Amino acid sequence: SRGGFRFKWPSLGRMGALLQLGLVFALIEVSAIIYNKANLFFLQKYAGAAGVAQYSVPWQIVDGLSAIVSGLLLQSVMFPLFVQLWEVDRDKVTQLAQDASRWLLAIALVVMFVLFIESDRIIALVYGPRYPEAPWLQKLLSVTVIFAFMHNLAALLMISMRLQRLLLIFYLCGLAFNLVWCSLVIPRAPLMGAALAMVLTKGGVAVLTVSFCQRRLGLMRTRPLLQLGLTVLLGALLYLLGHGRLPREATEVLALAPTLVLGGRWWLRGRKLS
Fold this sequence. Notes:
mainly alpha
């Protein structure tokens, strides 16, 4: 150009690579959208609008909490760090991923417990008494919280490692399973089938992505897993001891106390090390 600036068009090979990359991410998004919504189409057919409403009420609560953590913590904070550090300090990525995984597991366990044990109150408070099936559906769907937290972490790690094509294969496997399940089970048991479609699909995709990252990075260390396992067992014991003897709220606080104490110890230890 006259001003000395010349725009350089990307080469055809470069453009082709970018288009292929964009197509992979588009297919990942489309696969996720379909397997998150397919059960609603089957549910509408076999249970009508009333069935869709009973399912959608707890799913909006459960999925909304998962999306908040995924969006605020993982995508906005952790993912840029993973991408930036992967090419220069992979050991640092591993350390960050391990720290993130233990905190996500602890938070997921607390959120799952609250969603499960307080399902009747949460549904009544947010949506009122018109959804009698929603509380037990929320109990079942609460399991997806831990799957969503850990899968989202593993998926962002795979993208940071430039393994989005393998991630797409995992999503397509989940989509195929979801469609087969919905077509076979929902006609026979609409509400249960729709809820299990989401639980099993998210669980299956999470197993694929997390197990891959576990082999590649050692995503979850043994010691934090044992600590969390012991706190869950202790919390369950305290809940059983207090159930029927103490007020409901006090029993729930007792059940959560071991995990919250462990989280406090992790926090204090992290501050000392920093």
